[in-house]
Amino acid sequence: MHKEDQALIFELSTPGRIGYSLPEMDIPEVDVKELFPEGYLREEEAELPEVAELDIMRHYTALSKRNHGVDSGFYPLGSCTMKYNPKINENVARFNGFAHIHPLQDESSVQGALELMYDLQEHLIEITGMDEVTLQPAAGAHGEWTGLMMIRAYHEANGDAKRTKVIVPDSAHGTNPASATVAGFETITVKSNEQGLVDLEDLRNVVGEDTAALMLTNPNTLGLFEENILEMAEIVHSAGGKLYYDGANLNAVLSKARPGDMGFDVVHLNLHKTFTGPHGGGGPGSGPVGVKADLIPFLPKPIVTKKGEEYVLDYDRPQSIGRVKPYYGNFGINVRAYTYIRTMGPDGLKAVTENAVLNANYMMRRLAEYFDLPFDKHCKHEFVLSGKRQKKLGVRTLDIAKRLLDFGYHPPTIYFPLNVEECIMIEPTETESKETLDAFIDAMIQIAKEAEENPEIVQEAPHTTVVGRLDETTAARKPILRYKKN
Amino acid sequence: MKHRYLPMTEADQKAMLDTIGVSTVQELFNDIPESVQFKGEYKIKAAKSETALLKELTRLAGKNADLRANTSFLGAGVYDHYMPVIVDHVLSRSEFYTAYTPYQPEISQGELQAIFEFQTMICELTGMDVANSSMYDGGTALAEAAMLSTGQTKKKRVLISSAVHPESKEVVKTYAKGQYIEVVEIPQQDGVTDLAALQNMMDDSIAAVIVQYPNFFGRVEPLKELEEIIHSQKAMFVVSSNPLSLGALTPPGKFGADIVVGDAQPFGIPTAFGGPHCGYFAVTEKLMRKVPGRLVGQTTDDQGRRGFVLTLQAREQHIRRDKATSNICSNQALNALAASVAMTALGKKGVKEMALQNIQRAHYSKKVLKEKGLELVFEGPSFNEFVIKLAKPVKEVNQALLQKGIIGGYDLGRDYPELSHHMLVAVTELRTKEEIDTFAQELGDYHA
């Protein structure tokens, strides 16, 4: 161990210490060995830590201090919508009647939970302009796969089994092609044009009678609205394909444009982005899927419906693609999203998008002088810069990102989308103040100047973090994926 | 409008519009074609103040019968367990819950190290070499295991025990459709996978055989015998396992399992109406580069300090796109943290003691239920669940029990038509003697 290393919990372990308080044994005990044949009971104990309660709290508090969250500071990570995670959501999700109910209880005993799910569905139907919503998918990628499985079932039900291809733009999130593969499709890429939008000519070329669907994020990952969306819908629909909306960027268009009105047949939402379910260090998320009427029969089962005054789980859905997850989705995240929507209301959600887009455009214009701006037009909730100019000075986008750490910021998304050289993708969100944006802009300007005058300070960054740049090559070549006692 | 989450003032707005060179915010949306512009506001419920909304949602939550106010004998994959109070204190550290995926390791060492520790604990419990950073849940983890096995063996048939959780089985079948995998069920005999039937079904076309340990009926499957049958035909041995049970039971890794998956919900994660829970995914070293999802690895920085990074990312969707091992991106990191804290609090001794308490209390419950005249079905080595046969429909009995503050067991007739009137009863370490005795008394009364 290096003297500055943070101890692993296993290294703090001392035999004889405990950190638990199990119920007293108030029943007559038997010799457990007599209940099992030989070999059934574990002989070697699992090497879990032996630590007292304060040791545990100190350990995890120390770890938390080595982590940056939205509450720690600005987090302009493009395509991730790192907005404030409201605290009321956390309180509501912890109510006994939400946190401590069992999914297999009799429906009559969970009417409050079903009512919340139903009302959330109704709200999401209105927000997306779709006809029905399922809350079952656990995250965005899970929603993508669910939507594609429904599209596949739809085509098969029409005797149209030759539709084996899903088209995705070259700027798409990696999950799009990966989800298409898991759903049994082949992925075809459609190019972007010089304006950063889907190339309509290329789309016409790749669309055909084998097209199952086109997956699209709108605005796209460059933060640009696909202005030709109606033509694209027409091209795909007239070829018999379906249009899939990746809702990762919905924060850009709340109350401004609805996927359902743009011609989309299926949409997934990332409730942990636009609707403030916290990101949790990588999850859990929630990825509801909305569909137009002709796809409703294929929704995963069960779905929550209302019969008179009673909320029920409907399993009688013969054309359903089946279950995509045990139980009914990440209910705890759905509770948070519902609380958020009810906190904002219609006027609040409208202001969310307006402020998010205004913040992004303001930052883009102020930074355009110091960094290359590949697409010089109004952006939506995020925008991309290119670090080409700095690269010529020997400072790469990765260096800029690492240097931002010294200023206390989480860097933007970098090297994505793939169609912009030395890409820097910035999404401020609506919950950040102008003062925060200005301070970040000042830091970016300073780094641009450093790249010209003192590039080493950028190239060698970060200087202030608890560890420096880590050796990722060795990590992958000689993987150490667990602790082992020496 | 003014809202506590929106700091922009009118003065800010004006200054920003000036910088951009537009006069209204709406101009920034003029690239949206007129015909698809949404005019006006959503027809959704109006915003509520903090206090009013808390009041409304408190009432809504109050319409549910929760496990704190009632006594639960319901399990079937989701359990009411001891949750060390410190778990929620750690989870409430917003440095954890408001962070994104740790792609910037220099400012994410806390999360990365916590996940590295989680991976280690899962390896320890399951007896496997490698565990990932989490999956959505046990059901989807099982589906991913089936897909890994068909990719690895280049075979397209998977056998799954009918004693696997019915909802997990359904999820496996949904994923299988996408991958053109044939899923065939192995019948159960006396509540465990029918070994003779399995022997007859085995041939060299099978990619994997999936069993659950303890299985859906609470029985402990004979993994030694299963392994011999499965590996003799070079199929992969996939075990879905309740990790708490592994505090007392021999881990699947000891029996030669190739993939072990399950849900860490029993460790500090609330039932939450079925989610979010926390899938785990563990494999042998040979399969390390085939694992779905994120893996954290140990490395050093330029000064030799220990640090952690996301590693072997060439498996993942953001690098490999349509050739990735899985499409999973978001996982259940925060719940993996919860499980880590709970596993740490329990520690080496507590996890064993808790598992043994489950066995003891379930055993005691069987005894008193028998004394009340109830018939035990599928008797044999079991963990914290078992099956009883009732004289009346389970739904009817459960509705009566609820009037007494008891949430009864699972109605097996929902999934197994031949098991109507059969209740799957779960007894965890939280059920006291008094609660068990009352439950037995009530059931005895209905049975009479």
UniProtKB/TrEMBL annotation, chain A:
Keywords: Oxidoreductase, Pyridoxal phosphate. The gene is gcvPB. Signal peptide: none annotated. GO terms for biological process: glycine decarboxylation via glycine cleavage system. The glycine cleavage system is composed of four proteins: P, T, L and H. In this organism, the P 'protein' is a heterodimer of two subunits. The modification N6-(pyridoxal phosphate)lysine is found at K273. This is Probable glycine dehydrogenase (decarboxylating) subunit 2. Its cofactor is pyridoxal 5'-phosphate. Residues 162-280 form the Aminotransferase class V domain. HAMAP family: GcvPB (MF_00713). Residues 353-453 form the Glycine dehydrogenase C-terminal domain. It comes from Bacillus yapensis. It catalyses: N(6)-[(R)-lipoyl]-L-lysyl-[glycine-cleavage complex H protein] + glycine + H(+) = N(6)-[(R)-S(8)-aminomethyldihydrolipoyl]-L-lysyl-[glycine-cleavage complex H protein] + CO2.
Automatic annotation (TrEMBL), chain B:
It comes from the Bacteria. It catalyses: N(6)-[(R)-lipoyl]-L-lysyl-[glycine-cleavage complex H protein] + glycine + H(+) = N(6)-[(R)-S(8)-aminomethyldihydrolipoyl]-L-lysyl-[glycine-cleavage complex H protein] + CO2. Its EC number is 1.4.4.2. Keywords: Oxidoreductase. The keyword Oxidoreductase applies. One of its GO terms (molecular function) is glycine dehydrogenase (decarboxylating) activity. Transmembrane segments: none annotated. It is an enzyme of class 1 (oxidoreductase). Residues 3-441 form the Glycine cleavage system P-protein N-terminal domain. Pfam families: GDC-P (PF02347). GO terms for biological process: glycine decarboxylation via glycine cleavage system; nucleoside metabolic process. InterPro entries: GcvPA (IPR023010), GDC-P_N (IPR049315), GDC_P (IPR020581), PyrdxlP-dep_Trfase (IPR015424), PyrdxlP-dep_Trfase_major (IPR015421), PyrdxlP-dep_Trfase_small (IPR015422). The glycine cleavage system is composed of four proteins: P, T, L and H. In this organism, the P 'protein' is a heterodimer of two subunits. The glycine cleavage system catalyzes the degradation of glycine. The P protein binds the alpha-amino group of glycine through its pyridoxal phosphate cofactor; CO(2) is released and the remaining methylamine moiety is then transferred to the lipoamide cofactor of the H protein. NCBIfam families: PRK00451.1. Belongs to the GcvP family. N-terminal subunit subfamily. This is Probable glycine dehydrogenase (decarboxylating) subunit 1. The lineage of its organism: Bacteria, Bacillati, Bacillota, Bacilli, Bacillales.
